[in-house]
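Before the break, one more example. Copy the sequence into your notebook; we will annotate it together after we see the structure.
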Amino acid sequence: TSSTKCFLVSQPQQIYTTATMAAAARFLLRGGAQNSKLSAVSAVNSGSYHHHHRFGPTLLTVSCDTHDARSQPRRHAAHFTFQPDPVPTQYGPTQKMNLFQAVTSALDNTLASDPTAVIFGEDVAFGGVFRCTVGLRDKYGKDRVFNTPLCEQGIVGFGIGAAVAGATAIAEIQFADYIYPAFDQIVNEAAKYRYRSGNLFDCGKLTIRAPWGCVGHGSLYHSQSPEAFFAHCPGVKVVIPRSPVQAKGLLLACIADPNPCIFFEPKILYRAAVEQVPVEPFVVPLSQAEVLEEGSDVTLVAWGTQIHVMREVARMAQEKLGVSCELIDLQTILPWDTETVCKSVVKTGRLLISHEAPVTGGFAAEISATVQEQCFLNLEAPIARVCGYDTPFPHIFEPFYIPDKWKCFEAIKKMLNF
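Here is what the structure looks like once it is written out:
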């Protein structure tokens, strides 16, 4: 016979309650009951978008039976298919890399060419939790690639001081979700250093890297997209790549830029995104959006992971509706490329903006307001925003939360029928 135990969390609980749940799950999975299995009640496990409505509020179900857990379908976190860009030929020889390897390559190029460059953060010495700095300490020494205490405010504060002293400072925040303790250092110190000193001093040689966005199982503390917080702050640049090639080129551009930059790296793409990436250093210009697909009926604007969702949306719109979509990767969130976006909207008359962050106060609102001001007479329908909800990022209910291709597709149909 089989038995099932369900742990239900409907209200905020003490931290130890969650820990107890996790311990119970681990015991049933790894302990005396060797044939236990863990089935998360989520639409991801069902493998079908159309099964979402079947699930109730249960968060964790542990079933003990005679079936081998390894025979069960694996959890597929990705809600998109990565689309590699054409192989770049203008930058010399290329090598197959995923996104974290492209980041490593950019950092390697920087350390090799700039003797003042230093990389620091929690666990970067052994390669970091995502392996972005693997091998760099052994190659360049522990005085140039080194660990810091668990203190994000201290990491950024140290980076500001190093940059003011003339070093090329590259700070890693282990997850973008934990950048908030350093918020004061970024917005009140780094962003204002040049202004408050009358350009006598600056920390423009500071670059802050952080893994960003949803990953399929990160939940509320490892899936956030905080770019809009920093887009409200003059004095810093905010950049998010969509692919390995863009990651290397944009990161090198951030490091070379004379202003402090925040570089958010889509963590779900670290291994999922693979391209032929130039081995030698190259730069992708900041504040220039890229038109990835030209179209005539609807403008689609996104950045990071969401670009790959929008590629699928554009294909669906063409196949099912006969609608031609123009897809734009914003790339730089601040300062953003208003000219490219507005030029496209003048042509298409419709705009859909999508990002993973909550909709209220998200950067889609700034884009929407600017386009409405500059392209009002060209609009054929209200601007649409398909974003995350105004809730903490969920765990098993992530498929409900993310702005997937079906939500975006429905927004296009609504605009066309306006």
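Residues 1-73 have pLDDT under 50 and may be disordered. The first strand starts at residue 3 and ends at 7. Try to locate both features in your own notes.
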